[in-house]
Amino acid sequence: MDNVNSEGNHCMNFTNEEIMSYLVKPLKKHPNICVKALTLDEKEVQDTNEQIRYVSIDEDKDCYFSFLGFQTSLFVLEEEFMFIDDEAKENIVSSHTYGNVVYEGNLRDKSHKEILELMYQISSILVNVNELEIEERKVSQTGIQYPKCEYNVKLVSDVVDKGSIRFSNILFTFKDNLD
Q1: Are 159 and 128 in contact, with CB atoms under 8 Å apart?
Q2: Which end of the chain is more exposed for a tag (fewer CB within 10 A), N or C?
């Protein structure tokens, strides 16, 4: 594995080629979604010299990724799922994370491919969701500026109707409905 996560470098400074190969191309295999790589001014990336800042997955659900280097966020159904560089977490305060789902798994021990594949897996779960409900349980606040939490994200989907899957501190649970 290349040392893309050396000290001083953010672990999510992805290249366009990495985003296209490990996130956009796999997402394009999903039926009924229109995936677009966008620049900072939200124009579709036409040239490899234009840095990808967003990946739009489903405009109807306002579902997209935002890439900042130290943090990547997935927005879906007005909720934010945050992936924060482990070294940047000391600068993140509770006002940044309040009301959001924060992935607490270690990212710096992963390659760019592994991080983007993780994001693809999570977005694949959420892309067919019609409703979601988030339960948050604070675990600790030791050593960081915002509280560490465990999340149970309850999902209603037309595709999957039962089961669950865990990614570190985030449990996704499929339900028939959220009544």
Answers
A1: yes
A2: C
Distances in Å between the Cα of 158 and the Cα atoms of 11, 24, 171, 174, 176 are 34, 23, 19, 10, 9
Tens digits of per-residue pLDDT, 1-15? 444 555 668 899 999
Q: How many CB atoms lie within 10 A of CB 25?
A: 12
Which pairing describes strands 36-38 and 54-58: parallel, antiparallel, or unpaired?
antiparallel
Cα separation, 176 vs 159, in Å, equals: 11
Closest CA to 175 of 151, 153, 144: 153
User: pLDDT digit string (tens) for 48-84?
Assistant: 688 999 999 988 778 999 999 999 999 999 999 999 9
* pTM for the full predicted model: 0.90
136/70 Cα distance (integer angstroms): 23
HSE toward the beta carbon, residue 20, CA cutoff 13 A: 13
